[in-house]
Amino acid sequence: MTDLPRRQQRARGPAPVRHGRLPRRRLVASVLKLLAGVVAVVVVSSFSLAAYAVWDVARSVKHGVTLVTLPGHTPVPQDIPNVGAIPGGVNLLLAGTDSRTGLGGVYNSAAEQDASTGEGNNDVTMLLHIAQDHKSMMVISFPRDLMVSIPTCPTPDGKDTVSGSSYAQFNTSLSRGGLACVVLTVEKLTGVTIPFAAVINFDGVSSMSTAVGGVTVCLASKVKDDYTNPPLDLPAGESTLVGDQALSFLRSRHGVGDGSDLGRISNQQVFLSALARKIVSGGVLGNPVQLYALAKAAVQNVTPSQTLTNPTTLVEIALALKDTGLQNMVFLQYPAVTDPDNINRVIPDEEASTAVNNALVNDQPVALTGTTGRAAEDPSATATPTPTATDTPAAPAAPAAPTGTGTPVPTNSSGSVELPSTVTGQTAAQQTCTKGNN
């Protein structure tokens, strides 16, 4: 059973969406899966298998979406000649659509189709930032109910424009102007240029979690949610999630944390960190069969920007994370506080979001000082470790970067920016557990 009674209004353009009604985070798992899948075609031991994988994955890639950069931004060159780690840093945006169009199966009913068809809403939006030196990575999750300024965007066909808005719900940006509009909105919000992007559908998580043989997550208490499809009923302890069950886990709002959309984000970070550990430490990178299956599952469920239609580019982005280290992979929620004009919406936390934005713009690694979020807990009860010499060669501490208010940003001995304690998240090295809402 799904939560359809709560989601009957079809997504139409910039009209606001009811708070917390639509399923979305199942797509969030695709962040590291997409990148890990890309590695599949390079790390296999046989050159012939790699060559075949590149060809077969390439023919599965969908037609690319043209992104529109803000004034003064220079597009990234497309002709990258060699297969190796992409030079410099990477900003890649992943938008998970709630659209049921073309999915079939359980999403083919009249009620599901009425819930969301067409372009849909970007109910999952994540920005992957890989540092210029490839020694650190951030994955930032943006709340769907964040009220932001959305700029004037081109229509998906590029023939017209959609007027911007100074105060609009973030997850309407996809239905306003497609993937390019989501990119423009995040660029305006954070101040960084985003040359790579992709839209991911519901089927992506199911197929990719199956491709890696399932993801084992820790549950601090049972997770029960009758509003997902299929329903969830997971006992406390460890559960290995595969296929549609993984999808339901990532979609669950009622069953985790405090039942809020923000709690759902931290639950997804439990899954993402477990996935990252399996890919990096669990033998996936050394298994050509799993890697190839993961790569193909990724591209079959992604509509990429034109900058990502070349599989070589995907390979190069993935290879940039080869030596990053789990300790230096940070997942965080874009900091937000309750909107004073609407308790069902949130707005950026001015101080904390400025710190995150500055770290992005200045390409600085970050260290979390806050909690793991509303639906996650760290059983070790220790503070988030900072990068060590094992993960990152020792280097002189970087000078504190100025914030928008002129206040120095605290940095630790490794040169990482210490984010305010109001910023929640975790590293991939932290083995956290989901807290059930029961």
Sequence-ordered SSE layout with sheet pairings:
Layout: H1 30-43, H2 47-58, E1 90-97, H3 110-115, E2 122-130, E3 137-141, E4 147-150, E5 153-154, E6 161-162, E7 165-169, H4 173-190, E8 196-200, H5 203-211, E9 215-219, E10 223-225, E11 232-234, E12 237-241, H6 243-251, H7 261-281, H8 288-300, E13 302-304, H9 311-319, E14 329-333, E15 336-339, E16 342-348, H10 350-361, E17 366-367, E18 376-377, E19 417-418, E20 425-427, E21 433-434
Parallel strand pairs: 1-8, 3-14, 9-21, 17-19
Antiparallel strand pairs: 1-2, 2-3, 4-7, 5-6, 8-13, 9-12, 10-11, 14-20, 15-16, 18-21
Helix pairs in contact: 1-2, 1-7, 1-8, 1-9, 2-8, 5-6, 5-8
Q: Short description, anyone?
A:
The protein is of the alpha+beta class and 438 residues long. The protein has helices at residues 30-43, 47-58, 110-115, 173-190, 203-211, 243-251, 261-281, 288-300, 311-319, 350-361, and strands at 90-97, 122-130, 137-141, 147-150, 153-154, 161-162, 165-169, 196-200, 215-219, 223-225, 232-234, 237-241, 302-304, 329-333, 336-339, 342-348, 366-367, 376-377, 417-418, 425-427, 433-434.
